Amino acid sequence: MDLGSMSLTELRRLQSKVESEIRRRSDTARRDLIKRMQKMAAEQGLSLEDVIGTAPAAAEKTPSRRGRKPGKAAKAAKPATVSVIKYRNPANPEQGWTGRGRKPQWALDLLAQGKSLDEAAVQI
What we know:
By secondary structure, the chain is mainly alpha-helical.
């Protein structure tokens, strides 16, 4: 197959076919692996839930959300990380900022006064 001679439309069509085939094969491999794991657990008198602590197809049983194709498993949510406070309002130490996202008004006021955020930096 000579990709250099294909038009952009043909390449995009080919890309779509490749992506769908990869998804199909990945799903098939996953289902086969789950079946083999269930069989191995059953041979030991256990269920797969007993071994791993959750239902193997739990992600597939969740109702589909708008904008997502039905039957696709949802991505696992990342655990929330707690950000460390890097700056504190010198006028009110109860107000802190991690340095991420939008600057709070007190930080903007500090900068407007010609001061540096280093002056509000938390000393570790």
